[in-house]
Design a protein that fits this description.
Elements lengths: L1 H12 L22 H8 L3 H8 L8 H10 L4 H11 L15 H9 L5 E4 L5 E4 L1 H7 L11 H7 L3 H4 L3 H18 L4 H13 L1 H8 L8 E8 L3 E13 L2 E10 L5 H15 L2
Antiparallel strand pairs: 1-2, 1-5, 3-4, 4-5
Length: 275
């Protein structure tokens, strides 16, 4: 991940114009954004030290230095945390056991008959779901390995019909995986997923190279379902248990009395009868 640190820093300084940080730009620049020596000056470190940091040779970099660089590069909270994760990795052994969803969580999912809901793993793998979620996305009909939001978005052509805002959905997936990769350096399955998507999807390769980092915990999703039609759903993401942030519960909801609510009810009725 040493190369990842340098690539991330270069991508972030490329988006900052000198005028934004109080510098005067003279003449044409060979590179977009800030130069390395300008970042070093503004962060209060030597140019040589910053260059070594971008080259992955900055050993035992302090939190204070990273905070200063984050301030200069105007990183948001998620990007700031990602910078610390890739620059000062925690030596935690990766979990080898397959993730298990507790029976109580499965019972909770099944009790939510008016809201599509699923348990999602850190790699955007779908671990459990209720009937209405399955009626929307159909994960029970695909092989276990393919039960992944990222694989669905980038490898299943039907996803472009399902998501009218496909480009935004794709960018969101990649930004999530990029953020997670900074905290899971030894995650072989995540590395394999990124490798597979990079080989099979040109869209994924371009987005991955952009180094966007984002945490998507809530928002609005628009779907164009083949049975239910146009749907506008709000979603919230909750940690299943504070002691185990590996799993999150994603719940979709519709405005009471809305057209989407009516269509969801019809979809649920259709799914329960299997017709």
């Amino acid at each position: 991940m040493d190369g990842e640190l340098g690539a991330f820093l270069r991508s972030r300084r490329a988006r900052i114009q000198p005028e934004e940080v109080g510098l005067t730009s003279h003449g044409r620049r060979r590179v977009p954004g800030l130069r390395r020596e300008e970042v070093a000056q503004l962060a209060g470190v030597s140019v040589d030290y910053y260059i070594r940091l971008e080259q992955g040779r900055g050993q035992s970099v302090s939190a204070a230095v990273l905070d200063a660089i984050a301030r200069v590069l105007r990183l948001d909270e998620t990007e700031h945390a990602y910078l610390h994760a890739v620059a000062r990795p925690a030596n935690r052994p990766g979990r080898k056991a397959a993730p298990r969803v507790r029976p109580g969580i499965r019972l909770l999912l099944d009790s939510m008959d008016r809201s599509p809901a699923a348990v999602v793993g850190p790699r955007l793998d779908i671990l459990a779901w209720n009937a209405l979620y399955d009626a929307l996305f159909g994960y029970s009909r695909v092989a276990p390995r393919a039960r992944s939001v990222a694989r669905h978005v980038f490898l299943d052509p039907a996803s472009r019909d399902l998501y009218p805002d496909w480009a935004a959905m794709a960018a969101e997936c990649v930004a999530h995986l990029r953020r997670v990769s900074g905290h899971r350096r030894e995650d072989r399955q995540l590395a394999e997923l990124v490798g597979e998507l990079s080989v099979k999807s040109e869209d994924f390769r371009h987005l991955w190279a952009d180094h966007q980092v984002k945490e998507c915990m809530f928002g609005v999703k628009r779907l164009r379902h083949p049975v239910a039609g146009q749907l506008t759903l709000q979603y919230e993401t909750l940690t299943v248990h504070p002691a185990d942030p590996e799993q999150t519960l994603v719940i979709y909801a519709s405005e009471p009395g809305s057209e989407t609510a009516e269509r969801l009810a019809l979809l649920g009725s259709w799914a329960s009868t299997g017709t």
